[in-house]
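Input/output pair, single chain:
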Amino acid sequence: MATFLYKLGRLAFRRRHFVALIWVALLTLAGVGAASAPPAGSTSFSIPGTEAQKAFDLLEQRFPGMSADGATARVVFKAPAGEKMTDTLNKAAVEKTVKELGSGPEVVSVADPYTGHAVSRNGSIAYASVKYKVSGMELKDSSKNDLKEAAQHARDAGLTVEVGGDALTATPETGSSEVIGIAIAAVVLVITFGSLLAAGFPLLTALIGVGIGVSTITALASALDLGSTTSTLASMIGLAVGIDYALFIVSRYRAELAEGREREEAAGRAVGTAGSAVVFAGLTVVIALVGLSVVNIPMLTKMGIAAAGTVAIAVLIALTMIPALLGYAGRRVKPAGEKSRLLGGGRTPKNPGRPNMGTRWASFVVRRPVAVLLLGVIGLGAAAVPAASLELGLPDDGSQPTSTTQRRAYDLLSEGFGPGFNGPLMVVVDAKGSHDAKAAFTKVGDEIRGLKDVVTVTPAVPNRAGDTATITVVPGSKPSSKTTEDLVHAIRGKGAEVAQQTDSKILVTGSTAMNIDVSQKLNDALLPYLALVVGLAFLLLIVVFRSVLVPLKAALGFLLSVTAALGAVVAVFQWGWLSGLFDVSETGPVMSMMPIFMVGVVFGLAMDYEVFLVTRMREAYVHGEKPTQAVVTGFRHGARVVTAAAVIMMAVFSGFIGSSESMIKMIGFGLAIAVFFDAFIVRMAIVPAVLALLGKRAWWLPRWLDRALPNVDVEGEGLRTQSTANGKDTDPDGERELVRA
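Output:
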């Protein structure tokens, strides 16, 4: 592989005009496709095989005019202090608003609060339900404006009015913090390279790669039913890995220049060595993201594949566009250790013979490996403690910031009708096989009324054929509570008994039941997914490192860091620690997808640092250094660059903490803290400590396995052999290192 990538790097350096033209053309093509494509629909939470999804599908079949996937809005009214909604003036204002709401072309129906029993017992709060023909993301701006204007007219009449539901769904905003994250990345690159030009290359190529990836997702969003969250997550991951992959190749190029290589040769060798590591690191990320499809939740599968595609683009653009840009830069990119004059180049260093920070830190670790190992493991173990209290759920309007009208509407409904009113359960009774459908409907309703934590059970509403009915059940607890989850299971258990007595089928659905089923399915899939992803990556790393214990240590270290990161997420988003600092307005269950998504993404990113750092050590070891000295050598050449890469990735992920979407905020925080734990505690402390303790045993591989494994030559040994055979090795000692930084 190193030889092939070496030739690719030299070709891209020489044919830089052609390479640049290809990438600019791809970016333009993707941009035109995104601009001309129809808008994306709402994110689908379809969960095949679950009871909630079966009920939803049955409703669409038996109630064809129901518009089950259409947007909904609840316009909530509250009377002024000392008044009631049934007062003449207030009632007139509400009825006028209801009439105004029903005039929209996309409106299916509007339920009058006074005829639909939608006034609270104390008479202070009422609501009108609005049903639309299309989903919230497909709803026209004119319909959303009509909804807002109708609410404002009621406010002008003296009422407090808020609007809940998904009719006002908007694309999440990440705010200025995302820009700050990129700015921090730029500063780190300038400090690392000592050159504005060299620092700009990783940023430029990462932005081009993300632009192509996100534009392609946008162009295909309508056709493939991709939600807005898909592109946000793809840009988050694509930007982080894109900067890192380019950073490693540029860093290696400067190291090659410092050893006296010509620029074209240096570009080829940088791509042949660092590029080989980029390919394998990117492959682990792609495996982890594509592996999300085993969960069999379409939304999660699409998110994973879209992000994996963006990572693949980041790998390709780093292997080709970076050497092309280096060709354009010429002598303006300095060798390693030299800075541009603008940033202090030409000055005499204060301590020219002093070892760098990476060397000093690694020397400290190999002298005290037991103490460092224990301290790292105990620290991460303490951070992981809150993960034992992990509660899972999916976000609703109750998790929105208190500044939004959706959240205020949620709170008003809880105040007027009870906390369970925001998450009603829909029980679907399929009595097509029953000899007395009406009796079956009545029987189901009576049984549900006798269950614990049930506040209201509405009369059954049959379809035109009279063979299927819906019953709405209002719990006494809020939608995300354990009590409501128990009620769902109780209804399903009672439904199994009633089904035998009435020859009917009872299914529970609705957003609350759907969330419970999603959480359960994700829990069930976590261990199989973990085994699949870690197993495949373990085999891949055996090929890369030609060792059994090093990949095993890498996998165990990942499990430690991801558990600690989940503990931090629980502490902030569930327990409320430092919630003000991260603008978490409402604590509650952690998003159901968070554990499995973090496992996938963090594992791929963790293997990046493992590959980039440890291959330096392996290369030094196979060239004759003692195991402990090889650890120090690996840190001398790789620690600075890996540190910069981790800081950049943390900055990019942290930029998404400012998102208005709670899911994006949580993922941004989780990934940022996971990178911190994995890069600075696991890879920088635990890994060298373990390798120092293992000594030569770390690189042990059974002979039969050594013969069976393909030789992918990640270290670039083939380039060194070829150079020596051609009489072109510029290193008189023959010890020139060919592994990436």
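The longest strand covers residues 125-132. DSSP finds 22 helices and eleven strands in the chain.
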